[in-house]
Specification:
single chain; Rossmann fold; 6-stranded mixed beta sheet; 4-stranded antiparallel beta sheet; 11 helices; 25% strand; globular
Length: 261
């Protein structure tokens, strides 16, 4: 299977602290891949690299054959037009209606007529179950509806790769399940490559084809969801079984941490 994304020897520092330690992995085209791991493992940093918001200290990120880590700002701007992103808080502009939010990338990056943009906006809102809500403002919507509106905006330019940053964050279980079903439906209909950063086990089991697991800046697992579930690696079992890491939370280590001994 052809790879949509290939990350090789990716290294990142925040100041003197190394966040990503030369990680390498590939994401097959047309799959839904989840990036998982505990807090502070480097998931969000990796996502920032994939969408071109952060440049690595070294390494490469080939997306559909193009190394975005080596692109200049102009080329990177062109690349971003071919992807869609749902940020964790939806990142809608509160002063704009939903229709205006979805229309924004089309107005900024295309020369389409206003009438054509209006049709596309209605189609995208209908696609995520928000038909008839175009004139509503973000403050008038529930958290789940804001996420759906964010997806509609991310889909506005018909991206080849769609990124989700913690899509279920802050949602109740029923709303989160509905969002998972929407992600599945978009993937089936448009056959795009979907990358989801999440730590929610129900979502992982529902939407994932492939799993990339990070641990302390390294890659702990890469492979199919079925193999992830059956993996005997201690770090994977700890994550799947929701167990605290014994070496961190043992009474002796806890005493050392709080006393500095």
């Amino acid at each position: 299977m052809e790879n949509a994304i290939e990350v090789k020897d990716l290294v990142t520092f925040y100041g003197e602290r190394q966040i990503l330690k030369g990680i390498s992995f590939a994401i097959p085209s047309g799959t839904t891949t989840v990036i998982v791991g505990g807090s502070g493992c480097g998931k969000t940093t990796l996502l920032k690299h994939l969408i071109g918001l952060l440049r690595p200290a070294s390494g490469s990120i080939h997306i559909h054959g193009n190394d975005i880590a080596a692109m200049n700002d102009v080329s990177l701007d062109e690349y971003r037009k071919k992807m869609g992103v749902l940020f964790q808080g939806a990142a809608l502009l509160n002063s704009m209606t939903l229709a205006e939010n979805v229309a924004l990338p089309l107005k900024e990056h295309t020369k389409l007529k206003e009438s054509v943009i209006d049709i596309i906006v209605r189609m995208k809102l209908d696609l995520v179950g928000l038909s008839g809500f175009g004139e509503f403002y973000p403050a008038q919507l529930s958290g789940g509806m804001k996420k759906r509106a964010g997806i509609a905006r991310a889909m506005a330019m018909d991206p080849g790769v769609l990124y989700f940053d913690e899509p279920s964050a802050g949602l109740d279980p029923v709303t989160a399940a509905g969002l998972d079903e929407l992600i599945l439906r978009l993937h089936r209909v448009f056959k795009m490559t979907v990358v989801v950063v999440t730590h929610e086990l129900p979502s992982i089991f529902t939407i994932a084809d492939y799993v990339v697991m990070l641990d302390k800046g390294d890659v702990a697992f890469v492979g199919k969801l079925e193999d992830f579930k059956l993996s005997e690696k201690p770090i994977v079992r700890t994550f799947l079984e929701r167990r605290p890491e014994e070496e961190v939370y043992s009474p002796d280590n806890y005493f050392k941490i709080i006393t500095g001994a």
